[in-house]
Amino acid sequence: IDAPALGALRIRPAAALGVDRRSGRIIGVAAEATAPPERLVGEWTGAAVAAADVEVTDLGADQFLMPGLIDTHTHAPQFSFIGVGHDLPLMEWLEKYTYRHESELQDVARARALYADVVRRVLRSGCTMAAYYGTIHRESTCALVDAVRAAGQRAYVGKVCMDANSPDYYCETTDESLRETEAFVRAVLGDQSGADDALLVRPIITPRFAPACTVRCMRALGDIARERRLPIQSHMCESPAEIEFAKRCFPAYASYSAIYHAMGLFGPRTIMAHCIHMSDDDMRLVRECGVGVSHCPNSNFSLSSGVADVRRLLDAGIPVGLGTDVSGGYSSSIIDAMRMAAAASRVLTAQRGPAASAPLSTAELLFLATQGGARVMGMHDHIGTLDPGKLFDALVVDLAAPGSHVPAPAAAPAVARAQQLGRIEEAWALRAEQFVYLADDRNIARVYISAKLVHSL
Ligand code: GUN
Ligand code: FE
After folding, report:
1. What mean pLDDT comes out for the span 203-213?
2. 353 and 391 assigned to the same domain
3. Is 209 in the pocket of ligand 1 (CB under 6 A)?
């Protein structure tokens, strides 16, 4: 099961998918797997293949294969206070909890211990690629890179930049911020030996958000990103108070987007989190520059930030993916993000009517969690669907896993009926919906990244 386009769920119940372990890529998919595996592999590779050279894995009746989930926005250091501190709105939450907890990760040993747990946890939730924020500390953020590499996860990792309007215990000078960013980028890129490594872990330029940065810092970060062709991530249009703050810091600009745009931070490799309260000018600049949006509905609800209008973003042709935004969001699972995105879209449907704002369908939610996220990451040629040529970043989902909340077909009459009538695709469409609304880590039986098994139950 995959979602190659918005609203299109592709279900291939009798398919065989071939993977080359060495390249980590999908070499072919046969919709009807009637030929013996070695013949299929021979057709895909154009070479004679012996049965002994092919390892075959069959999936069970309650299992399916899907692309890995993609988290386009999360904060690794904030796992230290996940699930607490939801009593305050964004700006007060940052001051009272976030900056204090993040500042403690100056301690590299502490960061190392936390980040090993974080990455394992994100991985077992089925997330094969994440865009992580670290802290302002270079060494600790390098420890995050180490943890990602050790786990075999695909990721963008950013050293956070904050040289303005931040507490003195958690702030950098402009020179420090730029010097440490350069050093971080060199450290991450320098450790790479080949092209495949470059697709696994990359540094991402990370001004925390405009109000926490000076003009000089943001412009120089924009230069670094352009020179080194690196992705950029930040926050934007998250809450009315935050937007007011940004406008007070940068009164000369027509919109929040105009600030980032003027600093050279807006382009097709830019990921902006939240984008809830978007003016027409914001929408125009984001669209024209090819900026991708990370929709973080759990965080948007949990910090009372607002309800992002994903339908409006999609209708405007803006790339959208899902983010957990731990710990503004209390869940580190992209399955949760799909459910929260469904709820957010239905809030808008309830307010405006289905004609004005259609709710997100199961197919659309699965797209946002996979290929939509891949597009926002600029990785859609490499991951996001189960197409030949793509890297095999995939999950084996087991709907009948021990402790699973997904009912067996016999206990779900609609599924059972579709199966009895031989409507296999319809049955799987229903089960995909059950996956979105009921699954959790217990259903993620195996996780593959570049064809390497990196997690199994
Ligand atoms: N804006 C600036 N920093 C943050 C952060 O850490 N989390 C969220 N949700 N918004 C931010
Ligand atoms: Fe965030």
Report:
1. 98
2. no
3. yes
Shared domain check, 95 and 46: no
Nearest CA to ligand 1 atom 7: 328
CA of 331 to the centre of ligand 2 (A): 13
Q: pLDDT (tens digit, 9 = 90+) per residue, 44-75? A: 999 999 999 999 999 999 999 999 999 999 99
Tokens of 370: 């996979």
* Global ipTM: 0.99
DSSP state of 105: G
* Closest C-alpha to ligand 1, atom 11: 235
User: What is the pLDDT confidence band of residue 452, given thresholds at 50, 70 and 90?
Assistant: very high
If asked whether residues 293 and 166 sit together in one domain, one would say: yes
Residue type, 61: A
AA letter at 135? T
Give the number of C-alpha atoms closer than 13 A to the C-alpha of residue 276, restricted to the C-beta side: 24
* Distance of CA 291 from the midpoint of ligand 2 (Å): 16
pLDDT above 90 (res 33): no
Give the chain's domain count: 2
> Among 346, 376, 406, which residue terminates a domain?
376
Show the domain range for 294. Answer: 69-376
**Span 65-107, pLDDT tens digits:** 999 999 999 999 999 999 999 999 999 999 999 999 999 999 9
Kindly state whether residues 54 and 78 are assigned to the same domain. Answer: no
DSSP letters for 236-271: ES--HHHHHHHHHH-TT-SSHHHHHHHTT--STTEE
